[in-house]
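Question (not urgent): is this output format expected?
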Amino acid sequence: MPENHNRVPKEIMSRPATLGELASSPFGAENLRRRSIKDEMRDNLIRKLRDKAPIFSGVVGYDDSVVPQIINAVLSRHNMILLGLRGQAKSRILRELTEFLDEATPAVAGCEIHDNPFAPLCRECRELIAQKKDDTPIVWRTPDERYVEKLATPDVTIADIIGDIDPIKAAKGGHALGSEFSIHYGLLPRANRGIFAINELPDLAGKIQVGLFNIMQEGDVQIKGYPVRLPLDVVLVFSANPEDYTARGKIVTPLKDRIGSEIKTHYPATLELGVAITEQEAWIRRSEVGVQIPPFLKQVVEGVAFKARADQRIDKRSGVSQRLPISCLENAVSNAERRALLAGETTAVARILDVYAAAPAITGKIELEYEGELKGAETIARDLIKQSVKAAFRQAHPATDFKTIIEFFEAGGALKMSDADPSKSVLAQLSRVPTLLALAGSGNDPERVAFAEFILEGLYANDKIGRSEERGYTAVERRVPSQEVYTDYTMDRARGKKPLN
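Got this back:
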């Protein structure tokens, strides 16, 4: 078919203001007059695929998994549900579905359910068109206006979603309670000719979920038992967390059976994808000072989330949201910004100690198992940072010789630094360690401090040097066997027994 066969051209969007003008415009073509919302989304998706245009903007890491399944669901004209743990961009994807809608769509002016001028549903619109005919006023609705989202909560009622009979409206208009003129429409009818999204579907009470059956199966609604038929034209999309199936509620089986496609989301598969997502979403561009984030620090922050998802002390059912590295990076940047402002520096470079200072952005985003609860969230957070530094350090310095640095500490050297110390004072301390600044590379003072501190923290994470809050970086404390252990060892030797390792 031609490229714009089923798409309303831009040039007519602001022109037709009445039904007569609309009928004589390109939108008046027979194939567009009664086209459903699902056909509209399908047609526009086909156009995107043929043009090789991006399907979603700002969604990273789903190109080979989630996106193809969404494409199949739209091409199949399915209602769909996104199933996944928290922080997997489910809500964002649902909102991005407006990319498959026309740039503008005509509707009868003043209609609560945004009737199609060529096929009105509500009685009021039918009477208005019968009276004014070609002079019936028309409005144009944008894709964002055609997207309705509701967060499911236990207090949601059937009236909120479907609608209710309004006695006051009936009394003022002199209508019977069973009349269409007495209906107060809920969110679902108001989403007519658009997308209706429900976030966290299992939280919706079972009787409310049952109220969605007719929409999905028969395409109509019933209000208060009155035989009001409204064959709504709507796409229903949902999101859900697998944990919610047992923790707070469940999706009733008949409703789940009527959802065409169940699409499972996931966390980033690689550290590189995670870094890209975090960098895209985090607020790291500050205007007061110039903030730099070394590549290794981005890997460390993202690595915290990856380590947390594999840690046995953290609840796997709850998941570790992608918001954790986003918030952590923002906090680390803010700590670097605070240091630069206090020191009067024009450039702030984020350091490893800034990641430790961002622990409050980690502790609130992990749900601990019993073993983790015994140690505490803050201890777990610091341990996760250490593990992530260890991995990033080994990748950055797979074969570098740090012997002279280690010997400095073994000879009694020590460095004590704070995340608030200005770069010049820290640099003066670091210069005492042989070869450290040479290995840190060139650059301005904050950059050299950041890279040198990464080396020290990497050596600590790999147990080559020690660190404590009181003494700072020191030599590794070697444990000396107690007298009892030594005595037992000698006794074992005297008896001819092999001591345990």
